[in-house]
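dumping the sequnces here before i forget
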Amino acid sequence: MAPTSTDELFCSTLRARGQRVTPQRLAIAAVLRDLHHHATAEELHGLVSARVPGISLPTVYSTLELLEDLGAVRRVVNDGGTALFDARTDEHHHAICRRCGLVVDIEATPDQSQLLDAARTAGFAPDDAQVVVRGVCAACRTVREAETAAA
Amino acid sequence: MAPTSTDELFCSTLRARGQRVTPQRLAIAAVLRDLHHHATAEELHGLVSARVPGISLPTVYSTLELLEDLGAVRRVVNDGGTALFDARTDEHHHAICRRCGLVVDIEATPDQSQLLDAARTAGFAPDDAQVVVRGVCAACRTVREAETAAA
DNA sequence: GTTTTTGCAAATGATTTGCATGGAT
DNA sequence: ATCCATGCAAATCATTTGCAAAAAC
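..and the predicted 3d for all of it:
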């Protein structure tokens, strides 16, 4: 993969912050950029390992924290307490299944300004507003129906 | 504390489900009802211990799961992965500080029907939509300014 | 050459599980 | 008498931390 202009930006941002440009950081950023979807730290570790053999999980975590600070990644915490890292930075939200933990994107545009204003009223300097819809996914509903029928 | 009509409802719901009415369950339900605010499992355990000495943390967890199933409690997962259990069932949302984990209520009324419809389109049977605003709380902002000034 | 980052191994901390006892029906 | 719920202790699992070696500046 050839370096992209996004790489250039990433590198100069790192240098401006007095931080180092490393193959691990570039690889994680590249994987996220290609992924356009949320993934756990462990999933990302698997994907990045193909490019940087031997990369460690703690490095993945620390780089994700860095990218979150830079606003390149959003974090969604699912019900099991596992964090998902989302490379989609355009407005979208999430639905989480309370039975199996499935997380899917939902496209909706609530009035963000109203939500952010409410947070400011509470003394916050808001970064973003994420809607998390909790419910039961299609697959789990099928399972539950089967269980009910059997009982 | 005298039994309330809410207790009556809770008891009959449990019986209808073939489950037992226990002092632990009644105490946890009562504490949550009086609390009108979110709390961690551990905080609730502390509060309930005053009424039911010796109650165990696993019991608190399992009862919270039960109450969540009944729709009496909502779960909010903060950034550290710690779950907060919220007894407020009226519409309100949350702002979470990404520095210290503080969670505050925010009052705002996004178009819920639009959000829930979007989830249905994704195959979900939605329970509710929670907005989680991520940002930095007032206290942490003060700290950060102090750090920046010092640097 | 100096400072940051990495990888490893171990620690942490919330939550869950297995199992025997006690309690509700 | 039956079956569910509890308490205890141990297990689990994502994430974080301490530290020495390696890499970036």
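Chain B has a mean pLDDT of 84.
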